[in-house]
Amino acid sequence: MPQETKIIDLRSDTVTKPTKEMREAMYRAEVGDDVYGEDPTVNRLEEKAAALVGKEAALYVPSGTMGNQIAVLTHTARGDEVILDEESHICYYEVGSPAMLAGVQLKPVAGLLGPEGPDRLRAALRPENIHFPRTRLVCLENTFNRGSGTVMSPEMMANLYNLARERGLSVHLDGARIFNAAVASDIDVKEFTRYCDSVMFCLSKALAAPVGSLLAGDADFIARARKYRKALGGGMRQAGVLAAAGLVALDRIPELAEDHKNAKVLAAGLAELPGLKIDLPRVQTNIVVVEVAKQPGAATFAAALEARGIRCSSFGPDQLRFVTHLDVSRNDIEYVLQVAREILQE
Ligand code: TLP
Question: What is the architecture of the domain spanning 20-252?
């Protein structure tokens, strides 16, 4: 059993620390000036990433947010409309940057990423009219963070993609956790990414790299995206020291299954406790969203956990989010359940 002083950090999978293997690869990394395209490690990572998701080219960027925003900038022009789920990360958590940077208008749609998605998209599409903006882009997200980390099947993605393409719209996939979707459903990631024109995925979430995301698409798209990366200050020079950890991170993909198992154990255990409610079928990957009854209340329960060295994040007035990852073991999960039981029975 872990010491009480140990922190078990379930706020996010972004908190993972680089592994020893990553630090060694970073130490050994061959580097060059990536703005000149001369960093061999970055080039290797970009080539490997593009092949992995079945696209012509990829671009290494400092963060998922920057990858998404470069995609929005590259797909659109000022004044265009972007359709996306109202709970999607680009709409909910990216500081309003589509308006700030690309000057686009967001059309947040409820349920776009759910089973009614195609109907919701159809209803959101408007015919040409002098009063309307030009709709240009649809953004998807898989796994769906605020949807409890649920997986959107390739069929669901295909339905939305085909509908968007019929209307001449591009589709960008926020695939920050697309490998969690692939591993959870035991389907090659390319079966998901074939239904988008561009995809961003993160190395610094459950894959445990310290920094970095990839944006992938066709060669012309990535060439234009590269200019926007420079414009946003994301040209990182000897970034091979970071990309080296990213290459190691890609080898970790099959290990995500362990995080998913831990999330299921955590969810099943918490769901049995008084005052906690979990929609168990929605626990499909490494995210567990817990609804806390007014008694004890989400904030009070989170504070009691924090006092015992267990961290989670607020996800709404009555909701907490717990995310499993490499730095949380099965023993840690058992300990969290024991502490939660003690708190709720006090
Ligand atoms: N998500 C973070 C927070 O920003 C909420 C988290 O803890 O889950 N797309 C998705 C679906 C994400 O979940 C995130 C990060 C991003 C993009 C942005 O990635 P970064 O943090 O690298 O900018």
Answer: 3-Layer(aba) Sandwich (3.40)
The response to whether residue 80 sits with its C-beta less than 6 Å from ligand 1 reads no
| Alpha-helix runs per DSSP H in 186-328 | 190-193, 219-231, 240-250, 256-271, 298-307
Structure confidence by residue, pLDDT tens digits, 223-254:
999 999 999 999 999 999 999 999 999 999 99
Structure tokens at 290: 């817990």
Q: What residue segments make up the domains of the chain, in order of their start? A: 8-15+255-345, 20-252
Distance (Å) from CA 129 to ligand 1 centroid: 36
What is the whole-number distance in angstroms between the Cα of residue 247 and the centre of ligand 1?
Answer: 20
What pTM was estimated for this model as a whole? Answer: 0.97
Q: How far is the CA of 214 from the centre of ligand 1 (A)?
A: 13
**Nearest partner of 109 among 123, 129, 95, judged by Cα:** 123
Three-state DSSP at 294 gives coil
Superfamily of structural domain 8-15+255-345: Aspartate Aminotransferase, domain 1 (3.90.1150.10)
Nearest ligand 1 atom to alpha carbon 202? 22
CB of 97 sitting under 6 A from ligand 1 = no
**Nearest residue to 57 via CA among 190, 235, 225:** 225
- Cα(145) to centroid of ligand 1, in Å? 8
CB 299 within 8 A of CB 319: no
Residues 6+ apart with CB under 8 A from 3: none
184-199 pLDDT, tens digit per residue, is: 999 999 999 999 999 9
Helix (H, G, I), strand (E, B) or coil at 36: helix
